[in-house]
Amino acid sequence: MKTGISLAVVFFASAVLLAAAEIYQPGSITPPEPAREFRGAWIATVANKDWPSAPGLSVAQQKAELISLLDTAARLKLNAVIFQVRPACDAMYASSIEPWSAYLTGAQGQAPEPFYDPLAFAIEEAHRRGLELHAWFNPFRVRVAGAQWYPSANNISRTHPEWVREYGGQLWLDPGEPAARAYVTRIIMDVVRRYDVDGVQLDDYFYPYPTLLGKGLDPFPDGASWVQFGQASGLDRADWRRQNINQFIQSIYQSIKSVKPWVKFGVSPFGIWRPGNPPQIRGFDSYANLFADSRLWLANGWVDYFSPQLYWSIDAPQQSFPVLLNWWAQQNARGRNLWPGLNAGDVGIKFPASEIADQIAATRRQPGAGGDILFHLGSLENNAALADAVAGEYQLPALVPASPWLTSSLPVKPILGGQPANRTGFVFQWAPANTNSPVAKWILQYYDTDYTWKTYFLSAGQRAQYFTFTPQAFSIRAVDRTGNLSPAAVLTKIVPAMNHAAVTGPAPNKSFWGSYKAQ
Predict the structure, then answer these.
(1) What are phi and psi of 415, to 5 degrees?
(2) Which regions of 38-113 does DSSP assign to beta strands (E)?
(3) What share of the chain is helix, strand, coil (3-state, %, to 5)?
(4) How many whole angstroms separate alpha carbon 519 and alpha carbon 516?
(5) Cα 310–313–316 angle (5° rounding)?
(6) Which end of the chain has fewer CB atoms within 10 angstroms, the N or the C?
(7) What whole-number distance in Å separates Cα of residue 299 and Cα of residue 283?
(8) What distances in angstroms separate CA 97 from CA 155, 164, 191, one per listed residue?
(9) Neighbours of 322 (CB within 10 A)
(10) Under 8 Å between Cβ of 93 and 195
(11) 10 falls in which pLDDT band (50, 70, 90)?
(12) Does the pLDDT value for residue 11 go beyond 70?
């Protein structure tokens, strides 16, 4: 922010009154609408990809690394992080159901010492920086291939081995087991109920990616659940598997909305639904091999946002980024948020940093798309060329797009007032007009002496702003949990200068709103 304005909360008792005519009055001008664009990045915890950098770090080191990542996100004007809280039936948070992750402490089931809750800490620090935090779950993976940690006593492979299948060196919950699906739903809803997350996201792992055996594909070993639950369904085995995932996706969406309707639910599936859709596309068939009918989830509105992993370049003829993005936009009949995933992690390996900048620009040109998610935040922190390319695209702050199907009612216009302070300055103060309507953040805008509006996003807890000068106009708007904006409360300047000789010392106990109040 420019010199002369601080985003620290002002202590009202330190204000200095000036014996001068009123310099602000309620204004009828309308500040410009803020930009709307989802700017997210994944924070991967599996195999210590992004955070923590190694298992068993001290709590102080873990916190410092996470703060550094969030500072990078804020510096680059991102507005959301997608934090992997459950890499493999484990927990990067305090859970009474699943064990602490070995990626955190080095031993599954071992809590951080001294104790802290990484998810609660991440939410607090993200919100402090104006970032949404979405909890990212891998729903059915129990153990990754090559994992060195030993399963704890409350690992699902030990408490319910009848739900678990071994496949390709991994352990996997069988989605064909209704009890296993209910268990994962319970895990997700436990986080939704106990933590102030802004969203929940599932990635592309439903049934596992198939392994090759000779010329064929190694079948997933779900014979027991097929015999018990599938054969009588009237479906063939592939359709039954897809039905299991369809029911799971719909159940998660409905469960979240029944508890916290404002929490957004998103899925980030493999970027190709089926080869040939659209005609030039070739590649892996996620419909046939992962049993993920992701187009159906989008078409039925079982998500609030949809982030297909479009990890190919713009010029790739058989997996073209803009061609696939356009096809997904055409499938989005219910107008859900479409925020594609970009492969930032391969900058410097498969393509230059300019590719990501070009993909951000291509997404902006695509009707029906409203932002991006970068995989992954660690690559932004560690790759200067990539960070510069992203910063070049995200030059001004942007608000997360609204989700009007969740609620269309707007927040009430805030109460705004203020008073002179510290010889030449002014302190503006505000509060929600309706305490029953939670505020997610504030949008502060002021008309500067260079005849332009400046826009800043503030955390929900901030209720005052001190200026060392008197802006021509000041506006505050509330943003609710689903991205809806209140009308603007505005004060406009009516006297160009103040009588500085009239300073009398510390202010007496004035009312909270001081001398000037917007209507």
Answers:
(1) -90, 130
(2) 38-43, 80-86
(3) 30, 20, 50
(4) 10
(5) 105
(6) N
(7) 22
(8) 9, 17, 11
(9) 18
(10) yes
(11) very low
(12) no
Q: What is the pLDDT of residues 451-476, one digit of tens each?
A: 999 999 999 999 999 999 899 999 99
Taking a C-beta distance cutoff of 8 angstroms, is the pair 16, 508 a contact?
no
Examine residue 114 and say whether the peptide bond preceding it is cis (omega within 30 degrees of 0): yes
With b for 16 or more beta-carbon neighbours within 10 A and e for fewer, the 289-318 pattern comes to bbbbbbbbbbebebbbbbbbbbbbbbebee
Q: What does the pLDDT read at residue 331? A: 98
Which pairs with CB-CB distance under 8 Å and at least 24 residues apart come from 58-63? 59/112, 59/113, 59/114, 59/116, 62/104, 62/112, 62/118, 63/116, 63/121
Count of beta carbons in the 10 Å neighbourhood of residue 261: 13
* Residues 6 or more apart in contact with residue 242 via CB below 8 angstroms: 287, 291, 292, 293
**Residue 500 pLDDT > 90:** no
Query: Domain locations in the chain?
Result: 5-33+406-517, 38-393
Q: Which of 213, 99, 224 is nearest to 174 (CA)?
A: 224
DSSP 422: T
Cβ–Cβ < 8 Å for 386, 380: yes
In whole angstroms, how large is the CA radius of gyration of the chain? 26
34 within 8 A of 399, measured Cβ to Cβ: yes
Specify the fold of 5-33+406-517: Immunoglobulin-like (2.60.40)
> How is residue 395 written in tokens?
């030059």
Please name which of 106, 107, 137 lies closest in space to residue 119, comparing C-alpha atoms: 137
Beta pairing partners, 170: 167
d(CA 412, CA 381): 38
Return the closest-CA partner of residue 249 out of 285, 295, 289, 284.
Answer: 295
Residue 497 has pLDDT above 90, yes or no: no
Tens digits of per-residue pLDDT, 30-49? Answer: 999 999 999 999 999 999 99
Neighbours of 22 (CB within 10 A): 11
- List the structure tokens of 104: 């955190």
Q: Which of 124, 132, 69, 89 is nearest to 339 (CA)?
A: 132
Report how far residue 513's alpha carbon sits from residue 417's, in angstroms, rounded to the nearest whole number: 5
Closest CA to 48 of 101, 98, 114: 101
User: Is the N-terminal amide bond of 278 cis, ω within 30° of 0?
Assistant: yes
What pLDDT was estimated at residue 212? 57
Residue type, 245: I
- Select from 3.90.950.10, 3.20.20.80, 2.40.50.140, 3.40.630.10 the CATH code of 38-393: 3.20.20.80
Residue 502 pLDDT > 60: no
Question: Does the pLDDT value for residue 387 go beyond 70?
Answer: yes
What pLDDT shows up at residue 220? 94
Q: Are 459 and 124 in contact (CB under 8 A)?
A: no
pLDDT at 119: 98
CB 180 within 8 A of CB 173: yes
